[in-house]
Amino acid sequence: MFSIGELSKRTKVKVPTIRYYEEMGLLAAPERTAGNQRRYTNEGLERLSFIRHARDLGFSIEAISSLIELQNHPDRSCEAATEIAEGQLSEVRAKIKRLKALENELKRIAQGCDGRGVAEDCYVLASLADHDLCGRDH
Amino acid sequence: MFSIGELSKRTKVKVPTIRYYEEMGLLAAPERTAGNQRRYTNEGLERLSFIRHARDLGFSIEAISSLIELQNHPDRSCEAATEIAEGQLSEVRAKIKRLKALENELKRIAQGCDGRGVAEDCYVLASLADHDLCGRDH
DNA sequence: TGTAGTGTCTCTAGTGACTAGAGGTTCAAG
DNA sequence: CTTGAACCTCTAGTCACTAGAGACACTACA
């Protein structure tokens, strides 16, 4: 049995965030002391580690909810879990793709100006003002 | 002179977003008709195009504010603009790096389970529960 | 047993960059 | 002159937290 602060230290999830997860229904409401403070068991620790790990991988609270729901019914098919993970994977891939395009564009823009001139002639500002100066679509 | 709806069409920025930019001080408050409706000139169009282009490239409202401030003082050094663009570039690169790590991890997790089993034995769920199953740090 | 200091409680509000909706007014076309 | 679309302001909601206020609880030490 440990306090919310202790749980926070062990999982590296901030105290208000733990309470937030409880409010969002991700984390079961734990027992309380006579003085109304939360007291967690190892189960709470494991659950919170799961949540944190999934958040680190970019899963939304909603997706995590579904995964936890599934965890609570070990007899169900895990198809949904695989789908969620694959959905997340393709989202990540799409983001990478988009960011790479941005990277190219920004590289081009930033290289166009050495910062030694004056705002009037700045290639950075000109590029932003005029989309036609862009290499590709974005 | 055109209405906010017309400006919206031409720039592909939604009407409430235009009003939001005005409120945030990115876009100068335009003239109004006798009936209190906004009327824009080409200047407003150009300014909004600039903003939209910068937003598309991921610049924050705050960064755009600084860029616009610079645009309004064409005699100033454009060092700041170059710095902002380079800052944005390194942020984008950092994001790409992080997302690639996530991609690998998710790929590994998603591949570990074909979705045909039962939640109890699901590798996706197991991986999320147990960080030790992860390949690398994240 | 008293007390000091830290931890915890709930509640509200703020973040960024919008988006949605209510309820009312104005414009342009026919 | 009427109709209907576009416009106005204002408030509240989104996501995943974060910050702060003001009050109460726990623990260590005297």
Structural features, described:
- Two copies of one chain form a homodimer.
- By secondary structure, chain A is mainly α.
- Chain A has two domains: 4-76, Multidrug-efflux Transporter Regulator, Chain: A, Domain 2 (Orthogonal Bundle), CATH 1.10.1660.10; 93-133, no CATH class.
- Chain A is 60% helix and 3% strand.
- Chain A is built from six helices and two strands, in the order H-H-E-E-H-H-H-H.
- Chain A has helices spanning 4-11, 15-23, 42-56, 61-71, 79-111, 123-129, and strands at residues 31-32, 38-39.
- A two-stranded antiparallel sheet of chain A has the order 1-2.
- In chain A, a hairpin with a 5-residue loop joins strand 1 and strand 2 (38-39).
- Chain A is elongated and about 70 Å long.
- The model of chain A has no long low-confidence stretch (mean pLDDT 90).
- The structure holds a DNA duplex (30 and 30 nucleotides).
Topology diagram in text:
Two copies of one chain form a homodimer.
Chain A (H helix, E strand, L loop, with lengths): L3 H8 L3 H9 L7 E2 L5 E2 L2 H15 L4 H11 L7 H33 L11 H7 L9
Antiparallel strand pairs in A: 1-2
Chain B binds a DNA duplex (30 and 30 nucleotides) through helix 2.
**Fraction in beta strands of chain A:** under 5%
Number of strands of chain A: 2
- The helix-and-strand class of chain A reads mainly alpha
Computed over alpha carbons, the radius of gyration of chain A is 23 Å
Q: Tell me about the largest β-sheet of chain A.
A: 2 strands, antiparallel
Please give the most extensive interface between any two protein chains, plus how many residues each contributes: A-B, 55 and 55 residues
CA(first)-CA(last) distance of chain A: 53 Å
Query: What is the multimeric organization of the chains shown?
Result: homodimer
